[in-house]
Write a structure and sequence with these properties.
The complex is a heterodimer of chains A (14) and B (257). Chain A has 14 residues and is mostly beta strands. Chain A is built from no helices and 2 strands. The mean pLDDT of chain A is 93. Chain B has 257 residues and is mainly β. Chain B has 4 helices and 20 strands. In chain B, a hairpin with a 3-residue loop joins strand 18 and strand 19. The radius of gyration of chain B is 20 Å and the shape is elongated. Chains A and B meet through strand 1 and strand 2 of A and strand 10 and strand 20 of B. Strand 2 of chain A pairs antiparallel with strand 10 of chain B, so a sheet runs across the interface.
């Protein structure tokens, strides 16, 4: 099954 | 003091229509280079990045950097009060807790002003790394909106497959399966009808339709849309705003569990 990822796991908080 | 003016309210109205369904609120970061807004939707699956350059405004004054937390639904309601051909001016004092929108009719007979309270939003800012994408597709914005709308009827997810032959959008579910293949164009007379594919290497990515369809609310802003893709990183859907800036939507992919 495909799982929806989150933006936060790709872009770091500044 | 902050003051930004556009001789035509149309663009600002379209910008609000492009973000108000995805974001409830956002912070307009103002500096002498222009206005930036970056915010994630409530589910943190997508991110909107809006850039409006100061030289794109008919008048732009920003004495000190200013961050204005806005309820975008309220701001959209205020902008609904402007006619497309009204001049719109956004004004705020430096440490204000309100912002004023002033609309002037073309014939100067009618001047309206709307004051809105600002919000304290402590939204964290995300760093978006410069990325050399495997595939970049430029295509008519209307075409992209049409494909997203059509395929959403078949599934919650769209698979985008980009090769040197072209780009394919697929969706399958209970209704059946759909494939829309676009080939690169070579001899179009109008630039904005072209389909241009720059491919370093092929990609196959899966995305949720509902976000793609939220992004296509920006279609009235531009004839073209640009899709940037690399394996297992967010898709970038970019609409240029002529002479003013751009709006970029980032969408986290769906990956095999």
């Amino acid at each position: 099954t495909v799982k929806q990822t989150k933006i936060g796991s790709f872009f770091e908080k500044e | 003091m902050f003051e930004a003016r556009l001789n035509n309210a149309t663009t600002l109205k379209k910008i609000l229509d492009a973000i108000k369904d995805l974001l409830n609120e956002g912070t307009f970061d103002c500096s002498d280079s222009g206005i930036q807004l970056q915010a994630m939707d409530n589910s943190h699956v997508s991110l909107v990045s809006l850039t409006l350059r100061s030289d794109g405004f008919d008048k732009f004054r920003c004495d000190r950097n200013l961050s204005m937390g806005m309820n975008l639904g309220s701001m959209a309601k205020i902008l609904k009060c402007a006619n497309n051909d009204d001049t719109v001016t956004i004004k705020a004092q430096d440490n204000a807790d309100t912002v004023t929108f002033m609309f002037e009719s073309q014939n100067q007979e009618k001047v309206s002003d709307y004051e809105m309270k600002l919000m304290n939003l402590d939204q964290e800012h995300l760093g978006i790394p410069e990325t050399d994408y495997s595939c970049v597709v430029r295509m008519p914005a209307m075409e992209f909106a049409r494909i997203c709308r059509d395929l959403a009827q078949f599934s919650e997810s769209v698979v985008i497959c980009c090769t040197k032959e072209g780009v394919k959008f697929s969706a399958s579910g209970d209704v059946g399966s759909a494939n829309v293949k676009l080939a690169q164009t070579f001899n179009v007379d109008k630039e904005e009808e072209a389909i241009v594919i720059e491919m370093q290497e092929p990609v196959v990515l899966t995305f949720a339709c509902r976000y793609l369809n939220a992004f296509t609310k920006a279609t009235p802003l531009s004839n073209q849309v640009q899709l940037s893709m690399s394996a297992d990183v967010p898709l970038v859907v970019e609409y240029r705003i002529a002479e003013l800036g751009h709006i970029r939507y980032y969408l986290a992919p769906k990956i095999e569990d």
